[in-house]
Design goal:
The structure is a single chain. This protein has 499 residues and is α/β, with parallel strands linked by helices. It has three domains: 97 residues, 3-Layer(aba) Sandwich (Udp-n-acetylmuramoylalanyl-d-glutamate--2,6- Diaminopimelate Ligase, Chain: A, domain 1), CATH 3.40.1390; 228 residues, Mur-like, catalytic domain (UDP-N-acetylmuramoyl-L-alanine:D-glutamate ligase), CATH 3.40.1190.10; 159 residues, Protein-Tyrosine Phosphatase, Chain A (Alpha-Beta Complex). It contains 17 helices and 24 strands. An eleven-stranded mixed sheet has the order 9-8-7-10-6-11-12-13-14-15-16, with helices on both faces. Strands 17-18-22-19-20-21 form a six-stranded mixed sheet, sandwiched between helices. Strand 15 and strand 16 form a beta hairpin.
Length: 499
């Protein structure tokens, strides 16, 4: 592809050099530049790509996109290259990536799901419904990227623009017709999914998270809003949580066709007659004067909302209700989302990704609902093990401490991914919000889990929250192998051996 074809239609402040050169690839990391690539220099959170233009040139870059004015040294290094100055390198990366991979989203039906909580489960629910409809479906999300039977690790909930478009292109080439993708607020703020054609956009909720990045809830909301007001295709459908205060704000702000869902009166798609147990959910959905019975192995009120949002996305795609109910019933537990761990113990163990105040509250309430279920012969204690991530929004730590100690019977405050922070400093932040002195502190997460298993008795529910599907713990820039589920199973087996 020639450079002229690649950037046709893209806004640029200035272009110097030959546009008829051939471009063999796209790179935004100078270490990955190959001969004939176009290098997009952009400022990251830690490093600035403009500082590596010389390295990109040495590795064979044929053209450079930049947003900063280049210094004399940079100009000298790139004097024989085509230089393209733009106002926003990130937007240019999204445009060029989409162009290089021949606009793959236009050959797919794309469903984007955003919100603080529920994205992953909703994504898998929509995938299950589409597969029940007979479609070949790709998925991009927090746990992994799925292209038919190929599984890729997911370093980010939503990958950078270049990788995102490359995955969409692979989905097209392997015969996928639909793709369901989680769309994070970081991805929206950083324009990673710009120029993607979204047919359906789903808003699950908005609660405090990522304020280390967005700084305010209003900015956090505005990032989410982009999916609905800038990226949703003409004629696309916005599926919005009617019961969420930010959802109500989004309904007023978007000009798209809106389908609302919720439990409160007034939602287009609503749920009634909700019955939940340790076996799953049974409730009715009302839509357009009709009632549809839903049965699902998923547990808890939060999953009622996830199911409603997935049903809304399906309605937006005109999928028959018989298929919707079948797809929902087929979808089993999502890895690390209220996932049971059974190693022969006489108490219930759950691993969950809950890492916000709202998610933690929902997790504990769900456990309490199970505890109070008529099928539960002996009601016991709610025990929870949790921590907070380092180098992330510190303001949510006291709130999580308050929720855990207020709603649980026994709390073990520990480390999550401390990253480059002192684990005890993080724990002290959590401890400032403690509502009761029903907790202990154990910074070693393995020891914390072992303590919780040791005190658990018949009929108790043990929750291990925060990491869910993750198989590592990040400490001082290094990821150490660590899996909550595996450690729980190992600890329970050890306990049973000694009985």
């Amino acid at each position: 592809m020639t450079l002229k074809m690649l950037i046709e239609g893209m806004k640029a402040d200035n272009i110097t050099g030959d546009l008829d050169i051939s471009i063999s690839g796209v790179a935004y990391d100078s270490r990955k530049v190959k001969q004939g690539d176009i290098f997009i220099a952009m400022k990251g959170e830690k490093v600035d790509g403009h500082d590596f233009i010389g390295d990109a040139v040495q590795k064979g870059a044929a053209a450079v996109v930049h947003e900063k004015e280049l210094g004399s040294g940079q100009m000298s290094a790139a004097e024989n290259l085509t230089l393209i100055k733009v106002r926003d390198s990130r937007k240019a990366l999204a445009y060029i990536s989409n162009s290089f991979y021949e606009r793959p989203s236009e050959k797919l039906t794309v469903i984007g799901i955003t919100g603080t909580n529920g994205k992953t489960t909703t994504t898998y629910l929509v995938k299950s419904i589409l597969e029940a409809w007979g479609k070949d479906v790709g998925l991009i999300g927090t746990i992994s990227y799925l292209v038919k039977d190929r599984h890729y690790d997911a370093p980010h909930t939503t990958p950078e623009a270049l990788e995102f478009q490359a995955i969409l292109n692979e989905m097209v080439s392997t015969g996928c017709t639909h793709v369901v993708t989680e769309v994070s607020s970081h991805a929206l703020a950083q324009k990673r999914v710009d120029f993607t054609n979204f047919n359906v956009a789903v808003f699950t909720n908005l609660t405090r998270d990522h304020l280390d990045f967005h700084l305010t809830m209003e900015d956090y909301f505005k990032a989410k809003e982009r999916l609905f007001n800038e990226l949703l295709s003409s004629g696309g459908t916005a599926v919005i949580n009617f019961d969420d205060i930010w959802g109500r704000k989004l309904i007023e702000a978007t000009g798209a066709r809106v389908l609302t869902y919720g439990i409160e009166a007034g939602a287009d798609i609503s749920s009634v007659n909700i019955k939940g147990s340790s076996e799953g959910l049974d409730f009715d959905i009302k839509f357009n004067g009709r009632t549809f019975n839903i049965k699902s192995p998923l547990i808890g009120m939060h999953n009622v909302y996830n199911i409603l949002s997935a049903a809304g996305a399906a309605v937006g795609l005109n999928i028959p209700w018989s298929v919707i109910t079948d797809g929902i019933m087929r979808m089993k537990t999502v890895k690390g989302r209220f996932e049971r761990v059974d190693a022969g113990q006489d108490f219930l163990c759950i691993v969950d990704y809950a890492h916000t105040e709202d998610a933690l509250e929902r997790l504990i309430y769900t456990a309490r609902e199970l505890m109070q279920s008529p099928k539960n012969k002996k009601a016991g204690k709610i025990i929870i093990v949790f921590g907070c991530g380092g180098n992330r929004d510190a303001g949510k730590r006291p709130g999580m401490g308050a929720v855990a100690t207020k709603l649980s019977d026994y709390v073990v405050i520990t480390s999550d991914n401390p990253r480059n922070e002192d684990p005890m400093a993080i724990i002290k932040g959590i401890e400032t919000g403690a509502a009761r002195r029903n907790y202990i502190i154990e910074p070693d997460r393995r020891a914390a889990i072992r303590n919780a298993v040791k005190v658990a008795e018949t009929g108790d529910i043990l929750l291990v929250a925060g990491k869910g599907h993750e198989d590592y713990q990040e400490i001082k820039g290094t990821r150490h192998k660590f899996n909550d589920r595996e450690i729980l199973e190992e600890t329970i087996r050890d306990r049973l051996k000694n009985v």
